[in-house]
Write a structure and sequence with these properties.
DNA nuclease activity; metal ion binding; 16% strand; globular; 278 residues; hydrolase; TatD/YcfH-like; TIM Barrel
Length: 278
């Protein structure tokens, strides 16, 4: 059992329509070289997850993600400083994030936001950095990718105060139906991770059901949040295919309908080239 818990789940059958893993961490999954990245995305593509957005949370991973996005045409990047790392976020860090975020294959500013679960950065430092990232996303005209952990009210308040960018993505959406309605009404996009497949996530299930087409994405947040029934095992971008099928069942829709919605929404929000094949 111990060995099994360290193994990847099986690659699932290919989805009828190819989708985008809207948020993953290829470096944290163990990718170092271009060959590593290609192997991971090859596995994902076998499951119908044809493109991925690999996300940074510090400067080292931001540099790596930006470089990795040039190694394989199926890989794009998002860069920012994670809220738990904002205790020291000075002009040098801001300048580097801005330089990297401006790169062509960086499709979002993120993940940024607020995390009140971990006590790594003071709330005021997190909020100041969040406001700066909001401004950066607007200046670059790129989507803002939100990390929101136990900070719903302050995240929504600051987005409103700062006049949120045109596209806002709530990565690994963790709210209930009430929070989802507030986000949907504001025009934000909710990205559902493997947590939506967990049996005890009743509020998240309700949120997933009410979210209209065009305002939801699917992600893995790999190597974390592996979907049921493989919870606790390592995750990779191919795991998004499990979540797509579960989301379809939750919503009472066909898998191909949910997959098509996920694909077209990712293409619109991230401004990716349109792919119409399965």
């Amino acid at each position: 059992m111990g060995d099994e818990k360290r193994e990847l789940p099986p690659v699932p059958d290919r989805l009828p329509v190819s989708v985008v893993d809207a948020h993953t961490h290829l470096d944290a999954c163990g990718a170092v070289t271009a060959a590593d990245v290609t192997a991971m995305v090859d596995r994902a593509e076998r499951a119908g997850v044809a493109r991925v957005v690999t996300v940074a949370d510090d400067l080292a991973s931001a540099r790596w993600a930006t470089e990795a996005a040039g190694w394989d045409p199926r890989v794009w990047a998002a860069v920012a400083i994670h809220p738990t790392r904002t205790k020291e976020f000075g002009e040098a860090e801001k300048s580097e994030v801005e330089r990297l975020a401006a790169q062509d294959r960086v499709v979002a500013v993120g993940e940024t936001g607020l995390d009140y679960y971990w006590d790594y950065s003071p709330h005021d430092a997190q909020q100041e950095a969040f406001r700066w990232h909001i401004d950066l996303a607007k200046r670059l005209d790129k989507p803002l990718m939100i990390h929101d952990r136990e900070a719903h009210d302050d995240v929504l308040r600051i987005l409103a105060e700062e006049n949120a960018p045109n596209a806002v993505i709530f990565h690994c959406f963790s709210g209930d139906a009430e929070m989802a309605r507030k986000c949907v009404d504001a025009g934000y996009v909710l990205s559902f991770a493997g947590t939506v497949t967990f049996k005890n996530a009743k509020g998240l299930h309700e949120a997933a059901r009410l979210c209209p087409p065009g305002q939801y994405l699917v992600e893995t947040d790999a190597p974390f949040l592996t979907p049921h029934p493989f919870r606790g095992r390592p995750n990779e971008p191919f795991g998004a295919a499990y979540t797509v099928r579960h989301l379809a069942a939750l919503r009472g829709e066909a898998v191909h309908e949910v997959a098509e919605s996920v694909r077209t929404t990712a293409e619109r929000v991230y401004r990716l080239p349109s792919v119409t094949t399965g």
